[in-house]
Amino acid sequence: MDSEVTPVHAEITLLVNGTEHRLRVDTRASLLDTLREDLGLTGSKKGCDHGQCGACTVLLDGRRANACLALAVAHDGAEVVTVEGLARDGRLSALQEAFIEQDGFQCGYCTPGQLCSATAVLDEAERGWPSAVTEDLRGDPVLDDDEIRERMSGNLCRCGAYTGIVKAVGEAARKTQAEEAKA
Amino acid sequence: MRPFAYERAATADDALRLHEDGAYYLGGGTNLVDLMRLGVEEPARLVDVSRLPYGEIELRPDGSLLIGAAVGNSDLAADRTVRESQPMLAQAVLAGASGQIRNLATVGGNLLQRTRCSYFQDADKPCNKRDPGSGCPARDGDNHNLAILGHSEACVATHPSDMAVALAALDASVHVRGRGGERTIPIGDLHRLPGNDPQRDTVLESGDLITAVEVPPLDIPSRYRKVRERASFAFALVSIAAALDVEGGTVRDVRIALGGVAHKPWRARRAEEALRGAPAIGEEFQRAAEAELDLAEPLRDNAYKVPLARNLIVRTLTELGEQS
Q1: Could you report the per-residue pLDDT of A86-141, keeping only the tens digit for each?
Q2: Average pLDDT across chain B, whole number
Q3: A31 and A73 fall within a common domain
Q4: Which ranges carry the FAD-binding PCMH-type domain (chain B) (predicted)?
Q5: CATH class in words for B222-323
Q6: What are the structural domain ranges in chain B?
Q7: Could you say which residues from 36 to 55 on chain A have a Cβ atom under 8 Å away from some Cβ of chain B?
Q8: Long-range contacts from B231-235, C-beta under 8 angstroms, 24+ separation
Q9: What ipTM was assigned to the predicted interfaces of this complex?
């Protein structure tokens, strides 16, 4: 490490789980470190810090992203939702409930990333986004188990709770669709 | 990570002005930020170009697509027009990375991502691409996933992009804004073979900014297929972007580009030439694939890529022939 070098700082604003924060960050700071170290939101986890494991997944301007690969300074003005922001008024989301029902975790370390990622998977499917296993790119994909596995491939679980995770995401997708059909 | 200055460009002129020696353009950052963390890249300044007004996909009257360089990979793959008119391009983008990474990654950045050769990514190892003249341990080291075509004494790295392979088959071109004005580079000329200066991945000069990718229309059956070590979220061992037009049992037009085999997306011109006007049958596909792969010079641990590439060509063309 070169001891002569001086850190560069920048002022940014982030809207995190509905609360606005003015922050002074080192330009080198990842969004993940900013959330964990500056804002004390330690739900988002640092697994690999290289975008390979997905434990740091958050919703960045409504889309899932690896917070470890995002420089905080580059996302000035962004709206961020972390696992701490998924529950509403003290009530877990349908997806969080499904993870409990279907045994979608063991040690829990990857779970915040799995939950944020799966929240976005439901939204992406709703918007008709295809995946690598979608046969007909012209049509709207249906979230079957193969689709869920492919779409969740950016989230590793070293305990191997994948079977429960796939079931949980499938259950949440069906519940969401059923609620929409009612409405 | 070395400290760096951060500037956000509001216009392309701004970006060019802010770009100086030691500066890098920042798109989604999914590769660059990682390389900075690894100590492989040490920019003194980042010029963020992700908010430049290059975020649109335009279908032009002639049927070509103009894709802005700042378009997200997810947006490109989800775009209904792209899915309708160039499904192979959407397939290729969806074959790359993960949902999270595709949300951050941009079209321009996808083209300019660096090799995932493990020696390049390890700042403690020699690497001619990272540190010219330091040597290439991959030649006699862990090269199972490296190049079989077009490599040199100096470098056996592969280009990691899936999207670029589809663009190569589609005869796309890249719009570039540089200090000397604007120019258009055919995608096949953007990336280089390593030769004696593998530190240069592309023909771009310092300060050059990719602003868009132009994809001419191609209305024949096409497909992107990727073979990797796990079912998803891994770089290609070998991939193929292929299109085939058959009329009366004869090949009228064919496009074949391979990924994971060379320092650039490998357009299989020899195979294409062998096939044009030939009967669209398995034996001909096999002969064409072999003509191309006669050029291969596998390394100690990657000779498996030769039959893999051959089978991928034959199988994909056979399937496309059935649709044609």
Answers
A1: 999 999 999 999 999 999 999 999 999 999 999 999 999 999 999 999 999 999 99
A2: 97
A3: yes
A4: 1-220
A5: alpha beta
A6: 222-323
A7: 49-51, 54
A8: B231/A149, B231/A150, B231/A153, B232/A132, B232/A149, B232/A150, B232/A153, B232/B98, B233/A153, B233/A154, B233/B97, B233/B98, B235/B116, B235/B145, B235/B160, B235/B260
A9: 0.97
